[in-house]
Amino acid sequence: MAPKISLYTAHHCPWAHRAQIALRELDLEFETVLVDINIPRTPEYLAINPSGLVPALVYDGHVLTESGLITQFLVDSHPSHLLKSSFELGGALQRFSVTFFVDSYIKAHGFFDTAVYSYDREQEATAAQKYIDAIVSNIEPLLVDAAPFFGGSFRLTFAEVQTGSFLLRVLALPRHGGILPDCFIKDLEGKAPNFWRWSHAVIGEKTVTAIWDERDVVKRTLARIETAKRRGKP
Ligand SMILES: N[C@@H](CCC(=O)N[C@@H](CS)C(=O)NCC(=O)O)C(=O)O
Predict the structure, then answer these.
(1) Which residues, other chains included, contact 139 with Cβ-Cβ below 8 Å and sequence gap of 6+?
(2) Which of 8, 11, 13, 71 to mutate to test the pocket of ligand 1 (most atoms within 8 A of CB)?
């Protein structure tokens, strides 16, 4: 019998977006419950997730939190093209490679966020450069065989489920004047061609863009940058 799934989410949250991608790739039916994270959480939501964060997933009555763990649970519970099980041939190694890749990407992405929310131009340029350097040294070599997706796959894998929402931001935000240094996109394309090809393939997938609202994310990002500037720290 199909599981009963409710996803508590906010569409502009990149962490919650991961669960959307996983559920859609796995073709699972689910109910979406939008949580307004700009106001104090309701007692009902705090009873589901006491941390108040999104996402939370209720799966046949079990409450799951933390986007990485939720998506891992989903792919482990529903065998698919996304990730092999540990006991399949090559499965343990694939799982290691994907986890290593995702971990490396999320570390690099921290520099991108620092650049976006920086309070002065010098800090922005330094963090943007650190992001590009981390992509070139740590991510680019891991994408040498992407075809177009991780590990030579022609379909999305768990690596893209975990990173796609962040890639949408990396490729969209620099197109909005003043959020990142002007040379950011040109440098990324020139210095990290594997990353460039792979990330564009990822953001071309319907399951990745289904709930993506660029205008809304840009508006919220600009508002947060203003707050960071007023406070004088990121
Ligand atoms: N480590 C968490 C991070 C989730 C997270 O930071 N969610 C943010 C929105 S993007 C949130 O719920 N913020 C509400 C708040 O801080 O009150 C995960 O991966 O699920």
Answers:
(1) 101, 104, 105, 108, 192, 195
(2) 13
Q: Which of 29, 142, 134, 15 is nearest to 71 (CA)?
A: 15
- In the listed set 77, 110, 134, which residue is the last one of a domain according to the structure? 77
The kind and range of the H/E element at 6 are strand 5-9
Lowest mean per-residue pLDDT among 24-38, 48-62, 98-112, 214-228: 214-228
CA distance 29 to 3: 8
Q: Return the closest-CA partner of residue 14 out of 214, 226, 232, 149.
A: 214
79-130 pLDDT, tens digit per residue, is 999 999 999 999 999 999 999 999 999 999 999 999 999 988 899 999 999 9
Does residue 32 sit within a domain?
yes
Mean of the pLDDT values across residues 179-195?
96
Mean pLDDT of the chain: 96
Query: By residue range, what is the domain housing residue 121?
Result: 91-231
Q: Whose CA is nearest to atom 16 of ligand 1?
A: 53
Q: Name the closest-CA residue to atom 6, ligand 1.
A: 53
Nearest C-alpha neighbor of 116 from the set 227, 188, 221:
221
